[in-house]
Amino acid sequence: MATTAAAAAATTEKKKPVFVKAESLKPGTHGHNLTVKVVDSNTVKASGGTSSRGGRSSAARGPARLAECLVGDETGSILFTARNEQVDMMKPEATVILRNAKIDMFKGSMRLAVDKWGRVEVTEPADFDVDQVNNLSLVEYELVNVEE
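Structure tokens predicted for Single-stranded DNA binding protein Ssb-like OB fold domain-containing protein (148 residues):
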């Protein structure tokens, strides 16, 4: 019995998160941990929660809120899509930790997002300046099918 408890404790031991820089983000990837500074935040949509999906109305949760936020670190910047309560955390000049972030493609360009499997945390201010020249969301990608 003691050996199974020790084995269970060994398997539930958490790995240390590996933090990456903005310049290393690539299309179609996920599981990124970043510490970024918010440069700008623009509310995109604050719809009334009357849409129904799959027979369930989202009115009980309230309106869906979306904001596009330019975030980045000293290596580059990217647009982050903040949803619902994430919008409140993404204030300009705030430093946030994005855990388990993924890259979504929107009209051929990269967007950073954190879904229900990730986390957004506000942390103490970082001492770097965001490189807005290297904006990864301004690079357009094209889907190419390769036939063998």
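The longest strand covers residues 30-46.
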